[in-house]
Automatic annotation (TrEMBL), chain A:
This is Ferrous iron transport protein A. PANTHER family: FE(2+) TRANSPORT PROTEIN A (PTHR42954:SF2). It comes from the Bacteria. Keywords: Iron. InterPro entries: Fe-transptr_FeoA-like, FeoA, FeoA_core_dom, Transcriptional_repressor_C. Residues 1-77 form the Ferrous iron transporter FeoA-like domain.
Length: 79, 620
């Protein structure tokens, strides 16, 4: 499942980040912001217009991600 | 050699993630001994300050832009990367790096600290908000962390007055060797962070984030969040308009009063005219903006410091994204309805340089309050006070249309710029920081800096141009026995007549052309300039009411409408152009703005004039 498909308020764990192309700065930046395999996260709020962007809580930080950015975050399948 | 080291200030630089409290620490250490400028050639703010440790060692401290990584993705981060590496042109490499981490957010911030330590420059690690971390039940083993990173680690509380005492003690004898990192260089950086967290910290309490969770449930809520935002914006604009207005009126009256005093004191002549109509009037235009700027920035600084501003951007991002911008552009653009000058200064809160530039370019299209006197005059002169369908006042409708046309044009211009710009993805990826009480020191220093920048850098341009305009409108003096208004004989009058062939296709008269020149000082000056050209005496407020019948007699409806269309776009505001010059650090954007606004104004006036002629509203 991708992060943009995750329902709000459900805990999930990052499986990997999908790099689009050899030089995907968005994917690289996601990693620098702590979106790395094994990290738990949760969507805490969804933007009021068109459900975009998403407010994601990861560790002790919250980030606003547009859906296109969130779609790079691939989550572990829930057992 | 020892003597030299003792007396020359040590060059240190603060680095850290955004929202780590770096600037609070900078303010705490340097107080008001700060210099704010731009880095050469970029619109990134450069802040440098001085301080002396209790032991008497002087420091020059650079507050580098916040960065998540040294693999820079924005001009801000590129400045930080290059200065840290000693590669920034004209900026000597710092002799000491002070890396600031938020102790309550080590998971994110330690990663950057590791990057900084691996640069191999003398480094001190500062854990900010150590008290908050302890309160949350998080214990950090500072000696252990220090051993792992191979650099001294101290705790500070940047929002408390004595919060940096440990750091200052350490700075008496700062480390002048590179960090000796124990961590394996081949270990993946996130793995190192995880290992350091388990080895050097106790398990953090979970309850600590309840505040953010509770507040965000309301503030980011699709309905309540927007209501809260709406209410905040409403109060903010009430403040900007109704609190600032009496102060602005008082300033205005004070400046005119001072001018009158000088006028009575000095003999009639060139010097008196230069002082009163050139310099004092010009300085008055500058000072009169100050109340609005200060009140607006008081709000923006509080919203930014408290952590609300990124959340407002979150709520509005989608709407602004449809125009190719991000939610961060909303408040600067909204502020521009009061005045583009504070609006453009508020674009500092936009980190993305492209968004910032587009927002600056769009700000003059928001109908500022200075256009109202001009609209009011023209509407009163040409639009009959009739109600349509018994409900809507025709005059009000035209005013509304003028505002709407401006907003729609801004959307159109944004769309075109998005088209013309690079097609690369331009990410949001914005941190929503923890909520904090705004610190009085940070807000006060921020206000002080905005005021100084505006008065000194923007003010000097405005006063210079005012004097130039005064000279254009005063020289040469009318010949003896002249009957027409003095301005008609001046250089401005001459230029106005030369301009006529350019503006005649818009239906403008030579009087309008002449009035456009002093109107450059500020849009509302055009009203009194028209009064001067039509030789209407009396005070400003009087002038408008005397002008209305003259204008409706002498101009056709088509000319009136054409001039209204001109004012929707008209780039003729020196203050706006001066502040763009200051904020972008060059003339390029100034010319771009003036150029595209002039083009749009000309086009809109031309179309309006042609349309009005076709409707039979032309001169009879």
């Amino acid at each position: 499942m991708r992060l943009d498909e995750l329902p709000a308020g459900i805990d999930a764990i990052i499986d990997h980040i999908d790099h689009r192309g050899a030089d995907d700065t968005v994917a690289q930046r996601l990693g620098e912001l702590g979106f790395v395999p094994g990290e738990p996260l949760r969507i805490v709020a969804i933007g009021p217009f068109g459900g975009d962007p998403l407010a994601v809580k990861i560790g002790f930080t919250r980030f606003a991600l547009r859906r296109s950015e969130a779609s790079r975050v691939i989550l572990q399948d829930v057992a | 050699m020892d003597v030299l080291i003792e007396t020359l200030p040590l060059r240190a630089a603060l680095v850290g993630n955004p929202n780590c409290g770096k600037t609070s620490l900078f303010n705490l250490l340097t107080g008001s001994r700060q210099k704010v400028a731009n880095y050469a050639g970029v619109t990134v703010e450069r802040k440098e300050g001085r301080f002396t440790t209790p032991g008497g060692r002087p420091f020059r401290l650079l507050d580098l832009p916040g960065a998540y990584s040294l693999a820079a993705t924005s001009p801000d981060e590129a400045v930080t990367r290059d200065v840290c590496a000693g590669r920034y042109k004209g900026e000597p490499a710092p002799e000491l790096l002070i890396c600031v981490l938020d102790a309550t957010n080590l998971r994110l911030h330690l990663r950057f600290a590791l990057e900084v330590c691996r640069l191999g420059r003398p480094t001190i690690i500062v854990l900010n908000m150590l008290d908050a971390a302890r309160k949350e039940g998080l214990e950090i083993d500072l000696p252990r962390l220090s051993a792992e990173l191979g650099a001294p680690v101290v705790g500070v509380v940047a929002i408390r007055k004595s919060g940096a005492s440990d750091l200052l003690k350490l700075l008496d004898n700062p480390p002048l060797h590179a960090p000796v990192i124990q961590a394996d260089a081949h270990e993946e950086v996130h793995a190192t962070v995880r290992r350091l967290l388990t080895e050097c910290t106790s398990r953090p309490a979970v309850a600590s984030e309840a505040l953010e969770d509770r507040l965000d449930r309301w503030i980011l809520h699709p309905v309540w969040g927007l209501m809260i935002l709406l209410a905040l914006m409403f109060v903010m604009f009430q403040a900007v308009f109704s609190w600032a207005q009496p102060v602005m009126d008082a300033v205005d009256a004070g400046v005119s009063g001072f001018g009158e005093m000088i006028r009575q004191f000095l003999p009639d002549g060139l010097i008196r005219s230069l002082l009163v109509d050139g310099i004092i009037a010009g300085a008055g235009t500058v000072v009169v903006f100050l109340p609005q700027i200060l009140i607006l920035f008081l709000w923006i600084l509080i919203l930014e410091e408290s952590g609300y501003l990124p959340r407002a951007a979150f709520l509005l991002d989608r709407i602004m994204a449809s125009a190719g911008l991000s939610g961060r552009s909303f408040i600067p653009l909204l502020s521009s309805f009061a005045c583009a000058v504070p609006g453009i200064m508020a674009t500092r809160t936009i980190q993305n340089p492209r968004d910032r530039l587009v927002t600056i370019l769009l700000a003059p299209l928001m109908t500022c309050s200075a256009r109202l006197p001009v609209y009011a005059l023209l509407i009163a002169a040409f639009i009959p006070r009739r109600s349509i369908g018994g409900m809507v006042n025709q005059q009000g409708l035209v005013l509304f249309a003028l505002y709407m046309v401006a907003i729609l044009s801004a959307l159109g211009v944004a769309w075109v710029m998005k088209r013309g710009g690079a097609q690369e993805e331009h990410p949001l990826l914005m941190e929503l920081p923890a909520y904090r009480w705004p610190s009085l020191r940070n807000v006060a220093l921020g206000l002080w800096q905005r005021a100084v920048i505006f008065l000194s850098r923007v003010g000097s341009i405005i006063v210079t141009l005012s004097v130039l305009l005064w000279a254009l409108s005063s020289f040469p003096a009318p010949p003896a026995g002249a009957t027409g208004p003095a301005i008609d004989y001046s250089l401005a009058g001459w230029i106005g007549h030369i301009m006529l062939p350019v503006f005649a296709p818009l239906g403008f008269t030579w009087q309008i052309c002449v009035a456009l020149i002093p109107g450059l000082a500020a849009r509302e000056v055009a009203v009194s300039a028209l009064a001067t050209v039509y030789a209407v005496g009396g005070v400003d407020t009087d002038a408008a009411s005397q002008l209305i019948p003259i204008l409706s007699r002498q101009w056709s409806l088509a000319t009136g409408l054409s001039l209204m269309a001109w004012y929707v776009y008209a780039p003729q505001c020196f203050s706006t152009l001066a502040v763009i010059r200051r904020e972008t650090g060059g003339w390029k954007v100034v010319f771009q703005t003036a150029g595209y606004l002039f083009g749009l104004a000309y086009l809109a006036s031309f179309l309006t004039w042609r349309f009005a002629l076709a409707m039979g509203w032309g001169p009879s």
